[in-house]
Amino acid sequence: MNPIILFDGECHFCDSSVQFIIKHDPEEAFRFASLQSDTGKRLLAAYQVPPDIDSMILIEKDKAYQKSAAALRICRHLKGVWKWLYVLILIPRPIRNTIYDFIARNRYKWFGKKESCMLPSPSVRKRFI
């Protein structure tokens, strides 16, 4: 099963992050679903992730990762220098998540909020569940 990324479909920053991941994932390993979609809600419940979570979620090998752990595990799969960011996993989780939470708390203020989820191009649409 391909890793699945659950993202905030109303967040410009999150949408840009998904577009970045798609661009740097030439093997098309990742699948995507918005947190607001029926699939996203079903996966959150199946992996016992609180529905009010303020994080991108990575579901990989039957485990759900949140916050900095999700972001760094995603980086590990990307092409180019991005995979080297995974070394930051050595930083203690409370420190990593403090930085992650600061960005998450301010993302709407800094990047704005969308009224609806993005519509992927036909060539990318097959990667969304």
Please provide a written account of the structure.
The protein has a four-stranded mixed β-sheet with strand order 2-1-3-4, with helices on one face. The two termini are 13 Å apart. The protein has one domain. With 129 residues, the chain is α+β, with helices and mostly antiparallel strands. The chain contains five helices and four strands, in the order E-H-E-H-E-E-H-H-H. 43% of the residues lie in helices and 12% in strands. The longest helix has 19 residues, at 93-111. It is globular, with a radius of gyration of 14 Å. 23% of the residues are buried. Pfam families: DCC1-like. It comes from Bacillus lumedeiriae. InterPro entries: DCC1-like, DCC_oxidoreductase. This is Thiol-disulfide oxidoreductase DCC family protein.
In short:
With 129 residues, the protein is α+β, with helices and mostly antiparallel strands. The chain is built from 5 helices and 4 strands, in the order βαβαββααα. A 4-stranded mixed beta sheet has the order 2-1-3-4, with helices on one face.
